[in-house]
Amino acid sequence: MTTTQYLSQEKKGELEQELIDLKLTKIPEIAQRIDEAKQMGDLSENAEYHDARDQMAWAQSRVLELEAILHNAEVITTTGSGDGVVDLGRTVVVKVNGKEKEYTIVGAQEADPLSGKISNESPLGEAFMGKKKGDAVVVEVPAGVQEYKIIAVK
């Protein structure tokens, strides 16, 4: 199943750099550690060898994961149209329980709720998508059912 991975240009660059670093630096370093550990003799009780093998397996699986993400990546572009509709890359200001909160709608790879970045796939992000200033959005969140009033869409 291939799913579009929505990324900002910045995040895409970070993932591309991580991939290059893994392929050109980390994997060759781990391979050298494996080779050095093999030369120590008995592999059955060689902790360095087993640790390096585990790290190699992780690095290789991360390369595959990054390649899949980047292959299916679509860079989020926000237009300055000012249409006021919540979409990927937009920031939405809401009022909930008498408090104002600000959320930026991002792809799943960039979600960081503590810094106000929520995924378009999360219950809250999904509920905001396509809404406009003035709309009320009712969402079931872990704290229960909440009503969010959209104050602004940037």
TrEMBL record:
Entry-linked PROSITE patterns: GREAB_1
Pfam family name, one: GreA_GreB_N
Claim: DNA-binding is one of the keywords in the record: yes
GO annotation (BP), single: DNA-templated transcription elongation
The Transcription elongation factor GreA/GreB C-terminal domain, residue ranges: 83-154
GO molecular function, one term: translation elongation factor activity
Keywords, in A-Z order: DNA-binding, Elongation factor, Protein biosynthesis, Transcription, Transcription regulation
Domain of life: Bacteria
Signal peptide from the UniProt entry: none
Transcription elongation factor GreA/GreB N-terminal domain residues: 6-75
Keyword Transmembrane helix on entry: no
NCBIfam families registered for this protein in UniProt: greA (TIGR01462), PRK00226.1-4 (NF001263)
Family note: Belongs to the GreA/GreB family.
Function noted in UniProt: Necessary for efficient RNA polymerase transcription elongation past template-encoded arresting sites. The arresting sites in DNA have the property of trapping a certain fraction of elongating RNA polymerases that pass through, resulting in locked ternary complexes. Cleavage of the nascent transcript by cleavage factors such as GreA or GreB allows the resumption of elongation from the new 3'terminus. GreA releases sequences of 2 to 3 nucleotides.
Identification of the protein by name: Transcription elongation factor GreA
Species: Candidatus Magasanikbacteria bacterium GW2011_GWE2_42_7
Gene name for this UniProt entry: greA
